[in-house]
Each structure stands twice: as structure tokens, then as C-alpha cells.
Amino acid sequence: MSKTDTTEQQDNLGEAGAQLSTAPVEERASVIGGPTLGVVGWVRWFWRQLTSMRVALILLFMLSLGAVPGSLIPQTSADELKVQAFKDAHKTLTPLYEKLQFFDVYSSVWFSAIYILLFVSLIGCIVPRSWQFVGQLRSRPPGAPKRLDRLPAYTTWRTEAEPEQVREAALTLLKGRRFRALTAGDAVAAEKGYLREAGNLAFHVALIVMLVAFAWGQLFKSEGGKLIVEGDGFSNTLTQYDDFKSGSQFGIDELEPFSFKLDSFNGTYEKNGPQRGTPRTFEAAVSYSQGGTDKKAVIRVNEPLEVGDSKVYLIAHGYAPVVTVKDGRGKTVFHGAVPLLPIDNNITSTGAIKVMDGYRDKNGKKEQLGFQAFFVPTFAGAGAGTMFSQFPALDFPVMALTGFHGDLRVNSGLPQNVYQLDKSKMKQFMDASGNKLAQRMLPGETMTLPDGAGSITFEKDVKEWASFQISQQPGNGLALAGAIAAIAGLTGSLFIQRRRIWVRAVRGEDGVTVVEMAGLGRSESAKLPEELGDLAVALTADAPPAPDAAPVPPAEDPAPSGEADK
What we know:
This protein is an alpha+beta fold and 566 residues long. It has three domains: 41-138, no CATH class; 141-192 and 497-546, TATA-Binding Protein, CATH 3.30.310; 222-472, no CATH class. 32% of the residues lie in helices and 29% in strands. The chain has helices at residues 3-13, 15-18, 25-32, 38-50, 53-72, 80-89, 93-99, 109-138, 163-176, 195-220, 476-495, 527-539, 561-564; strands at 153-159, 180-184, 187-192, 222-229, 233-235, 243-246, 259-269, 279-290, 293-300, 305-307, 310-326, 332-337, 341-342, 349-355, 368-376, 398-406, 426-428, 438-441, 446-449, 454-472, 499-507, 513-521. Strands 4, 6, 10, 11, 12, 19 and 20 form a seven-stranded antiparallel sheet that branches. Strands 13, 14, 15, 16, 17 and 18 form a six-stranded antiparallel sheet that branches. The protein has a five-stranded antiparallel sheet with strand order 1-22-21-3-2, covered by helices on one side. α5 (53-72) runs antiparallel to α8 (109-138) and α8 packs antiparallel against α10 (195-220). It is elongated, with a radius of gyration of 40 Å. Pfam families: ResB. It is found in: Membrane.
């Protein structure tokens, strides 16, 4: 065959013939190479991958996994002191954790990226599926297959009723059972279970709502703590907080205007048994004011005081011994309740008493005093071998004091913990024997300072304090609604079954009407034959079996998937 003939045959075969060419590979490379995606093609491919259900589940799993470090590692947004203590105790891990942003997980770049991708993925999944669902709701149930006896659930009988009468009765019955039904030719087609897909969509929409609520809450939240002694109060202004943190979009002028006073704290504890010391009553009685209206309330654990958009939670409790400090001339330089911080469940407490102004030594020189305090509400007794409290209630209060004098360094410009003494410029008092001055005191007792430096008295009055958290979380209600909707949607998508029922009624060769009923579910279910049997029994009221016909047979068990597809 000549080269010319070959070329003519290739032209006749068109593009397919060109690929049969015996030309060298180099010349055919451009012919057999596949098409390239290009920029638009790659963007479409990435969007399809991102909006697939598989990727959405992977991102949801990654988000859950990413929250683990935030639960196990102290977070700067929650407690800076714990973060600093963790850094001091783990010098090797700290640089790695800082690079990975493990101390600020929820505001980190990688957590935000997962969060945003999941948000976009869910929206990309929901929008097209919602349009498909709307289309399904507007469409009609499909017509009956030619061979109903091949479906998983099937029953048949003969009746003397007219075919039209049977179809009309079947249509009424199915609509009464909340099926979407219509007559198509010689059969009635019905479908039910659309709430399954609605539940699925509701679940995904609820996830988006929860993500929005979480972001809203993080951006516009405010949260602060305040320790209040009985008889003292609090006004919801920034300067009144012991600590305060807020979202990046929160404005100080958005603080709810209110104030409250701690009237009393009531705490009772289990006295016997394995739960000895467990709180039984733990509540704070307060008087609060908002907009000029004075009210009273009781705040308990998990029962906060709600004032507008703010909630006041009771989170801790302790004791504040009342002390009086006098100088060498007998002048009172300090008198008040000193809150001490608990260090165990029995409220063994430590703290510092600081006299910063008004004190002068025996020579008239200005000086500052500091006392390290250790307080137990229930003392074990002298010679018991322990100074730790034996019970949380105020049964046998004892306070141990160690005195110092000098410069407290409160005016150095550096932040200082009010519950700790900076002893770098302080000297400890010494007794007449040259030993460090320390004394264990009962209520009403006084410790005299050496060399006419004055005295400190542990008054018989021991007040209680309560610590409160005042927070504004604008997204909490939305998050709760999303969580409830997600549970409801997931329940519907798991337990509601989409199924179809067909009822065919035709006149047989002998003139007797033959009724066939069949059902098909989107997934196998033992309840489908039961439901079909129940419908068949109900239909026999209007289409009773012919006298010479056998009773209505039960619906068949679901056939294997291979047979159902024949």
C-alpha cells in the first residue's frame, strides 16, 4: 500500500485514524497527550474536593483534634499565671509550644485555617443539596415498576372491587398515612420519609450556626474576676476587676451597667462519712442594682445572677481574718479583713498582710510592715503534728504570723501579687532571744512586735469572701439553639427511612381485580414489610379478598440486594 493510500485512509477515519499512525513517537506526542486542566480546571477540582462530604468530615475531625492541646495545655486567654508556671516548669517544651501556638490554640493561625475551611466546606455542601432537596419536594413520586413482585416487600390478592375503586381507596389510605401519593396509570405511587434529608440538612446548618456562634462569642465576649469580702461591693467598670479579658471586637462601653454587694456567704459541709468536707450549701446572698432598682438574689454554683446580657457566677470561697495593726505609740495604722487564698479542699489558706502607709518606727521614721499569714479554719490541735486544716468550716480557727519590716516595694512601678510579700528589701523581726519572730494565734490574741515596733491583733471576727466571674457571652444562646437543632437533625437522619409504596389494581383475565402492593426503601429495614402488611390489611376494608381467593399473604421479607436490583 502506498503512502498516499495510507494518508487517505487516515483522513477517512478522522481523529481516531490519526492515532493509528506509524509515525515516530516524537511526532505523535501532541496527539496522544491528555488535556491539561488549566487554572480554572484546578480551581473547580479544588472546590469539588473542599465541598465534598468526605473533606467536611475530615476537617471536623481535625477541628476536634486541634482542640485537644487547648484542653490539656494552659491557655493565655484563660489564665496567664498558669501559662507562666507551665513555662517555668517546662523549659524544653516551651519554645516548641510557642512556635506551634499551643498557648493560644483557639486564636492560632492553624486552628483558624481549619475553622474557616470547615465553614466554607459546610456551606458548599449545603447549598447544592438544598436545591436538590427542593427539587425532590416539587417532583412527583416515580411510577410503579412493571414487575412489582421483584421488589423486597411484596403482597397480592384478588378482589371483586373495581380497579378504579381500589386505586381511589389506596390513594386515600396512603395520603391519610402522610405519604405523598398520586395515581399514575393503573397504579398509585406514594413516597414518604423526606424528613430524613431535611434532618441531614438541618444537622449541617446547625453546625454552621454553632461555628458562627463560637466566632461571635470569641470576638465580642468579656470575662473578668472579682474577689469580694462580706460587706463589700462591686461596680461593673473596668477598674473594679481583679482580672479582665475580652474579645478583639468588644468595647468597654458595652459593659452592662450594674453593681452588687455581697451581703453574706453561707457554706455548710458534710461532717461524717467518706464525703466528709464535701460542700452541701454553697451560696452567696447579694443585693444588686440596675437602672436605679435595688433587688436581692442568691447566687449558687451553676445558678448565676443574670443582669441584662451579663452573668455573675460564684466560683470560689475562702476566709478573710480581721486584723488590727498598731505602731509603737498605740496608733492604729491598719484595720480590716484580709482575704487569704485556699491551698487545699479544707481551705487551709495563705496570704500577706501589708501595711503600706501611716506606720512609723520607734524613732519616728516611715517604714512599711508585712506579715506572712497561714490560716486554718479548723486546727488539729497543739502537738498534732500538722498545721493544715482538718475541716472546711470555721470550727477552730488559728492563724500563724511571721512579721517583716522595711520596704514592700509597692512603689517600684512593677506589678506585685497582693497575696505575696516581696522580701527583697524587708527584714524579719527578731524576738529577745535572737530568733525569728513567729506566732500561732487564736482569735482575740495579739502578737507584740519587738523593740517597741507595735503589735498586730487577730480579731475575733473572721469574715468570708467569695470570688465571682462576671461574663458576657453573646453567642451562648445561638450555640445552644444550634446544638439542639444538630441533635434533632442527626436523630431524624438516622431514624427516619425514605421509602416508596406502589399499589397496582388491574382487571384479570377472569374479570376479577388483581391487587398488587410493593415497597422499596432507600436502605434495608425490617419495618418496611411490617408497614406494607399493615397497609394491605387496611386496604382490604375497601378491597376485600374475593370469596374464592386466598387470604392476603404477608409481605415478603426483604430480598437480597442482588435480587432487588434485577
